[in-house]
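Side project, low priority. Logging it here so it doesn't get lost.
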Amino acid sequence: MPGKIRTAIGGLFLTTIAFIAPAAAQPRLFSDTSEIQLLLEAPFTDLVRAAPRSTDPFAGGVTWSGEGGDNTRYDLQIAPRGISRRTRGICSFPPLRLDFDQSAMRGTVWRGQNQLKLVTMCRSGANYQQMIVLEMLAYRMFNEITPMSFDVRPARVTYRDANGRRREETQFNFLIEDVSDMTRRNERRAVEVLPNEVSSSQLNPMAAARVTMFQYMIGNLDWDMTEGVPGEECCHNGKLIGASAEARSDLIPVPYDFDMTGFVDPPYALLPAEVNISNLRQRVYRGLCRHNDQVPATIAHFQARREAILAVIDGETRLSESRRRTARAYIEGFYDVISDPERVQNAIIRRCRG
């Protein structure tokens, strides 16, 4: 029996190390966590009007200051992206995709970048700025759980309408690392499949349990690890990565898009009809029963990263003091659950799906 215990502990130790081991060198843009200053120029009036119906790009330019910025304007294509924030009439400004000319960006902070997602403020105002800061922190908290996660870079972006038809506006935004860079630094490859082409049995059990526990921590119901929008690439608000692009086993889900969560708590969030909750801040565990065996080790891993996760919130100077207290209390509420064996059984183990 003691030998079996040592073997189990050793396996858990190696698994945990695999999740927190340092990743390979990052692309230069995401190796710095300071706020980059950007000026984007494009026909934004036309782009915003077209966004609910189209994701066609518009010609534009970018200038940046700090970290090698030389006030040179570089051409790029700017396109609206996303679904909910773009098409449902809930936002006055859509999320954006920046398409770079890689050859022109050699020798700059943007070297090697092709397409990048830019997360923008849904609407103007201090409350929406606080929400986008919280969404960025969700990415950083998941970075503390595993390097198999998307890095982000804060940006202070000034939007200038190329036709002079829209008032110049400066927003706090953030950039999301491209999936090709995330997979490269983790020595993996993106697996491109349609929804339901892979099953939950093909997922890495520990990675799947880790993602599920994180989504429970931030109160997210807007995700799936194998399903998604019909005709779109799998999966809903997540990517699958593996040892090769053709891999169909030991797949690792990597989530993104954390705005419709209890942690951020946006006023435009829609509660899923199939979940019996009255507000978004109520947590609902959506883990699969096949991964219940991984729950104890997953909880141990989250417990080990508790101080690092709370430090992400405590160190964010762009949050107001009241938002910081609320955000910290929400995450501490998750730790209250996973620290109580009876609550783990009732709120997690017995709530599994499938």
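Brief comment: Residues 55 and 139 are 25 Å apart (CA to CA).
Revisit when time allows.
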